[in-house]
Amino acid sequence: MPLPGNLLTTAMAVMPHTDVSRALEMALSLDVPFWPQLPNFSYYEDMYVQAAEHFPGIILDVGKRTLRFSIDRFAEEFEEALARFDDPDYFDISETYSAVYHRFLSLDQFFAQVNRPRGIHLCGNPDWDFLLNLDLEVLSMDIYTNAEIFSSYAASIRRFLDKGGLIVWGIVPTGMETFSQEDLPSLTGRLESVWQVLSKKGVDRDRLLAQSMLSPATCCLVNADKERTVERAFSSVNQMSRQMRDTYRLG
What's this model's pTM, rounded to 2 decimal places? Predict the structure, then answer.
Protein backbone atom coordinates (compact mmCIF):
# COMPACT_ATOMS: atom_id res chain seq x y z
CA MET A 1 0.00 0.00 0.00
CA PRO A 2 1.71 3.26 -1.10
CA LEU A 3 2.19 5.92 1.54
CA PRO A 4 0.52 9.28 0.93
CA GLY A 5 2.61 12.43 0.86
CA ASN A 6 2.19 15.72 -0.98
CA LEU A 7 1.71 17.62 2.31
CA LEU A 8 -1.46 15.77 3.31
CA THR A 9 -2.31 15.84 7.01
CA THR A 10 -2.26 13.45 9.94
CA ALA A 11 -1.51 13.62 13.68
CA MET A 12 -0.18 11.67 16.64
CA ALA A 13 -2.51 9.80 18.94
CA VAL A 14 -2.73 11.35 22.43
CA MET A 15 -5.49 13.94 22.81
CA PRO A 16 -6.92 15.86 25.81
CA HIS A 17 -10.57 15.08 25.04
CA THR A 18 -13.03 13.35 27.35
CA ASP A 19 -15.72 13.12 24.67
CA VAL A 20 -14.92 10.04 22.57
CA SER A 21 -17.16 11.01 19.67
CA ARG A 22 -15.62 14.47 19.43
CA ALA A 23 -12.10 13.03 19.51
CA LEU A 24 -12.94 10.61 16.71
CA GLU A 25 -14.46 13.48 14.72
CA MET A 26 -11.17 15.39 15.02
CA ALA A 27 -9.14 12.30 14.09
CA LEU A 28 -11.24 11.83 10.98
CA SER A 29 -10.94 15.52 10.01
CA LEU A 30 -7.40 14.87 8.74
CA ASP A 31 -6.41 13.26 5.45
CA VAL A 32 -4.98 10.22 7.24
CA PRO A 33 -7.02 9.45 10.37
CA PHE A 34 -5.52 8.02 13.52
CA TRP A 35 -6.63 6.16 16.63
CA PRO A 36 -6.93 8.80 19.39
CA GLN A 37 -5.76 7.85 22.89
CA LEU A 38 -7.68 9.70 25.61
CA PRO A 39 -6.04 9.37 29.05
CA ASN A 40 -8.29 12.11 30.44
CA PHE A 41 -11.31 9.97 29.52
CA SER A 42 -9.99 6.85 31.28
CA TYR A 43 -6.67 5.70 32.74
CA TYR A 44 -7.05 2.62 30.55
CA GLU A 45 -6.56 4.97 27.58
CA ASP A 46 -3.05 5.90 28.74
CA MET A 47 -0.57 4.53 26.20
CA TYR A 48 1.71 3.03 28.86
CA VAL A 49 -1.22 1.20 30.45
CA GLN A 50 -2.34 -0.11 27.07
CA ALA A 51 1.17 -1.28 26.15
CA ALA A 52 1.43 -3.09 29.51
CA GLU A 53 -1.88 -4.99 29.32
CA HIS A 54 -0.38 -8.41 28.61
CA PHE A 55 3.13 -7.79 29.93
CA PRO A 56 4.02 -10.13 32.81
CA GLY A 57 4.61 -8.55 36.20
CA ILE A 58 2.41 -5.49 35.77
CA ILE A 59 0.31 -4.20 38.71
CA LEU A 60 -2.33 -1.71 37.58
CA ASP A 61 -4.45 0.40 39.92
CA VAL A 62 -6.94 2.31 37.79
CA GLY A 63 -8.46 4.13 40.77
CA LYS A 64 -5.11 5.53 41.90
CA ARG A 65 -3.88 5.87 38.30
CA THR A 66 -0.68 3.95 39.00
CA LEU A 67 1.25 1.37 36.99
CA ARG A 68 3.94 -0.67 38.75
CA PHE A 69 6.16 -3.64 38.02
CA SER A 70 6.57 -6.65 40.33
CA ILE A 71 9.50 -9.00 39.81
CA ASP A 72 7.66 -11.71 41.77
CA ARG A 73 4.57 -11.46 39.58
CA PHE A 74 6.80 -11.37 36.50
CA ALA A 75 8.28 -14.71 37.53
CA GLU A 76 4.76 -16.14 37.98
CA GLU A 77 3.37 -14.87 34.68
CA PHE A 78 6.37 -15.07 32.35
CA GLU A 79 5.90 -18.68 31.21
CA GLU A 80 2.24 -18.13 30.23
CA ALA A 81 3.12 -14.98 28.29
CA LEU A 82 5.95 -16.80 26.53
CA ALA A 83 3.66 -19.70 25.63
CA ARG A 84 1.33 -17.22 23.88
CA PHE A 85 4.16 -15.41 22.09
CA ASP A 86 3.00 -16.60 18.64
CA ASP A 87 -0.65 -15.67 19.28
CA PRO A 88 -1.09 -12.03 18.13
CA ASP A 89 -4.76 -11.98 19.13
CA TYR A 90 -3.77 -12.52 22.75
CA PHE A 91 -1.55 -9.44 22.72
CA ASP A 92 -4.10 -7.19 21.03
CA ILE A 93 -5.63 -4.41 23.13
CA SER A 94 -8.87 -5.52 24.77
CA GLU A 95 -12.05 -3.45 24.85
CA THR A 96 -11.48 -2.88 28.57
CA TYR A 97 -8.12 -1.27 27.86
CA SER A 98 -9.36 0.88 24.99
CA ALA A 99 -12.98 1.45 24.15
CA VAL A 100 -11.79 4.21 21.81
CA TYR A 101 -9.56 1.86 19.81
CA HIS A 102 -12.38 -0.57 19.18
CA ARG A 103 -14.78 2.22 18.24
CA PHE A 104 -12.16 3.50 15.81
CA LEU A 105 -11.84 0.08 14.19
CA SER A 106 -15.61 -0.29 13.98
CA LEU A 107 -15.84 2.85 11.83
CA ASP A 108 -14.54 0.82 8.90
CA GLN A 109 -13.21 -2.73 8.87
CA PHE A 110 -10.57 -1.52 6.44
CA PHE A 111 -8.59 -0.22 9.40
CA ALA A 112 -8.40 -3.71 10.85
CA GLN A 113 -7.11 -5.26 7.60
CA VAL A 114 -4.59 -2.75 6.24
CA ASN A 115 -0.99 -3.91 5.95
CA ARG A 116 0.52 -1.17 8.07
CA PRO A 117 3.87 0.47 7.30
CA ARG A 118 6.42 0.81 10.07
CA GLY A 119 6.92 4.23 11.57
CA ILE A 120 7.89 6.14 14.67
CA HIS A 121 6.88 9.45 16.24
CA LEU A 122 9.11 11.46 18.54
CA CYS A 123 8.41 14.77 20.24
CA GLY A 124 11.97 15.06 21.55
CA ASN A 125 15.43 15.41 20.02
CA PRO A 126 16.96 11.92 19.64
CA ASP A 127 19.86 10.66 17.54
CA TRP A 128 18.38 11.57 14.16
CA ASP A 129 21.15 9.89 12.19
CA PHE A 130 20.41 6.60 13.95
CA LEU A 131 16.63 6.87 13.35
CA LEU A 132 16.89 7.92 9.72
CA ASN A 133 19.00 4.86 8.98
CA LEU A 134 16.61 2.36 10.58
CA ASP A 135 14.31 0.16 8.48
CA LEU A 136 11.36 2.55 8.78
CA GLU A 137 8.84 3.87 6.27
CA VAL A 138 7.57 6.85 8.33
CA LEU A 139 9.31 9.32 10.62
CA SER A 140 7.00 11.72 12.45
CA MET A 141 8.68 14.49 14.43
CA ASP A 142 8.39 17.90 16.08
CA ILE A 143 10.08 20.15 13.54
CA TYR A 144 8.68 23.25 15.27
CA THR A 145 11.11 22.71 18.16
CA ASN A 146 13.89 20.76 16.45
CA ALA A 147 14.24 22.53 13.10
CA GLU A 148 17.86 23.66 13.42
CA ILE A 149 19.29 20.36 14.62
CA PHE A 150 17.22 18.19 12.26
CA SER A 151 18.23 20.21 9.19
CA SER A 152 21.88 19.46 9.96
CA TYR A 153 21.28 15.78 9.05
CA ALA A 154 20.76 16.44 5.33
CA ALA A 155 22.74 13.43 4.14
CA SER A 156 20.74 11.00 6.28
CA ILE A 157 17.48 12.70 5.31
CA ARG A 158 18.38 12.33 1.63
CA ARG A 159 19.11 8.60 2.09
CA PHE A 160 15.84 8.15 3.99
CA LEU A 161 13.90 9.76 1.14
CA ASP A 162 15.84 7.83 -1.51
CA LYS A 163 14.64 4.53 0.00
CA GLY A 164 11.02 5.76 -0.08
CA GLY A 165 10.68 7.07 3.47
CA LEU A 166 8.04 9.63 4.40
CA ILE A 167 8.55 12.50 6.86
CA VAL A 168 5.65 13.88 8.89
CA TRP A 169 6.57 17.46 9.76
CA GLY A 170 5.03 18.42 13.13
CA ILE A 171 4.87 22.15 12.59
CA VAL A 172 1.81 23.56 14.41
CA PRO A 173 2.32 23.91 18.19
CA THR A 174 -0.49 22.73 20.47
CA GLY A 175 0.43 24.55 23.69
CA MET A 176 -1.77 27.59 24.38
CA GLU A 177 0.99 30.17 24.76
CA THR A 178 3.11 29.01 21.84
CA PHE A 179 0.13 28.60 19.53
CA SER A 180 -1.06 32.13 20.31
CA GLN A 181 2.30 33.53 19.17
CA GLU A 182 2.06 32.02 15.68
CA ASP A 183 -0.09 32.27 12.58
CA LEU A 184 -0.14 30.46 9.25
CA PRO A 185 2.40 32.72 7.51
CA SER A 186 4.89 32.41 10.39
CA LEU A 187 4.53 28.63 10.56
CA THR A 188 4.77 28.26 6.80
CA GLY A 189 7.90 30.39 6.76
CA ARG A 190 9.44 28.37 9.58
CA LEU A 191 8.92 25.10 7.70
CA GLU A 192 10.00 26.43 4.33
CA SER A 193 13.22 27.74 5.86
CA VAL A 194 14.09 24.16 6.89
CA TRP A 195 13.36 22.92 3.38
CA GLN A 196 15.55 25.68 1.91
CA VAL A 197 18.46 24.60 4.10
CA LEU A 198 18.01 20.98 3.05
CA SER A 199 17.72 21.93 -0.61
CA LYS A 200 21.02 23.79 -0.43
CA LYS A 201 22.57 20.63 1.03
CA GLY A 202 21.42 18.47 -1.87
CA VAL A 203 17.96 17.24 -0.83
CA ASP A 204 15.70 17.34 -3.89
CA ARG A 205 12.77 19.65 -3.11
CA ASP A 206 10.24 17.91 -5.34
CA ARG A 207 10.99 14.52 -3.81
CA LEU A 208 10.86 16.06 -0.33
CA LEU A 209 7.40 17.51 -0.94
CA ALA A 210 6.12 14.30 -2.51
CA GLN A 211 7.25 12.33 0.56
CA SER A 212 6.08 14.74 3.24
CA MET A 213 2.99 15.18 5.39
CA LEU A 214 2.01 17.86 7.92
CA SER A 215 0.84 17.43 11.50
CA PRO A 216 0.59 19.19 14.86
CA ALA A 217 4.01 19.45 16.51
CA THR A 218 3.22 17.48 19.67
CA CYS A 219 0.48 16.08 21.84
CA CYS A 220 -0.76 18.31 24.67
CA LEU A 221 -2.83 17.30 27.71
CA VAL A 222 -2.20 20.27 30.01
CA ASN A 223 -3.77 23.32 28.36
CA ALA A 224 -6.03 25.38 30.62
CA ASP A 225 -8.58 25.50 27.80
CA LYS A 226 -8.54 21.68 27.61
CA GLU A 227 -9.09 20.64 23.97
CA ARG A 228 -9.78 24.08 22.44
CA THR A 229 -6.21 24.98 21.41
CA VAL A 230 -5.54 21.44 20.23
CA GLU A 231 -8.59 21.58 17.97
CA ARG A 232 -7.47 24.96 16.64
CA ALA A 233 -4.07 23.43 15.88
CA PHE A 234 -5.75 20.64 13.91
CA SER A 235 -7.68 23.24 11.93
CA SER A 236 -4.46 25.18 11.26
CA VAL A 237 -2.73 22.05 9.97
CA ASN A 238 -5.55 21.50 7.48
CA GLN A 239 -5.48 25.15 6.37
CA MET A 240 -1.72 25.10 6.03
CA SER A 241 -1.88 21.93 3.96
CA ARG A 242 -4.42 23.42 1.56
CA GLN A 243 -2.42 26.61 1.09
CA MET A 244 0.92 24.88 0.61
CA ARG A 245 -0.46 22.22 -1.72
CA ASP A 246 -1.83 25.04 -3.85
CA THR A 247 1.48 26.96 -3.71
CA TYR A 248 3.51 23.93 -4.77
CA ARG A 249 0.84 22.64 -7.21
CA LEU A 250 0.52 19.29 -5.49
CA GLY A 251 -3.08 18.71 -6.56
Answer: 0.88
